[in-house]
Amino acid sequence: MDKTVLIVDDDPNISELLRLYFSKDGFKVQICYNGNDALDAYRHSQPDVIVLDLMLPGMGGFDVLRALRKESDVPVLILTARGDTLDKVVGLELGADDYIEKPFEPKELLARVKAVLRRIQSAPDKARSSSDEDQHKPDIITWPELIIDRTRYTVTIGQQEIDIPPKELELLYFLAGHPDRVFTREQLLENIWGFDFFGGTRTVDVHIKRIREKVDSVPHPDWRIKTVWGVGYKFETSKVED
Questions:
Q1: I need a labelling partner for 134 at 20 to 30 A (CA). Which of 31, 41, 51, 210 fits?
Q2: How crowded is residue 180: how many other Cβ atoms within 10 Å of its Cβ?
Q3: In this predicted model, what pLDDT tens digit does every residue of 184-224 receive, in sequence order?
Q4: Whole-model pTM?
Q5: Cα torsion for 62, 157, 142, 205, to the nearest 10°?
């Protein structure tokens, strides 16, 4: 495996238990018990994936995630309290890749982490092995007031380049590359997150909401991301009245 996982949890018993499971599976393991140390550890060692508890002393998990997303796209799986839907939604909105509820089975957590890493690793292969239509798509898609550059992973709205996480860029690129075609949430999950994604279709809604917040900063009457109620979403290029 030769991958490094950073475990951030203030419970030493949980941390050591996860160390055993991950080490047995071939991971290198680092452990931090608070948010400030977690950021320092990430910047120093650049782990491949982070398991982040939201309930941390001092700097909380949400603040850690915000700070990470300002400088990195490292995969992050958050640990949430069972049944706390708000934590899950906020975590996904801030850029978490997946979540698992406490208490959890270490084997399931390990499986989720490995699934996240597979998605990251398979993204280039998936792009190379996609259909002929996808293979011949340009690396830069342009619409009025919108430039999506897949080579530099940037999005420009009007004259301003905006900060956008990779998954949001991939989702916007996919929709803009198939104008006026409706995709279900399940189809978008399959194409952007992969078959082995553990999260639900709410993940798509969250990412669409965040994309809209960014792209709507500049008027774009020639296109919009439209919700097709009961079905999914499409990148609509017709001029329509809201």
A1: 210
A2: 11
A3: 988 888 888 775 555 667 888 889 998 999 998 888 889 99
A4: 0.61
A5: 40
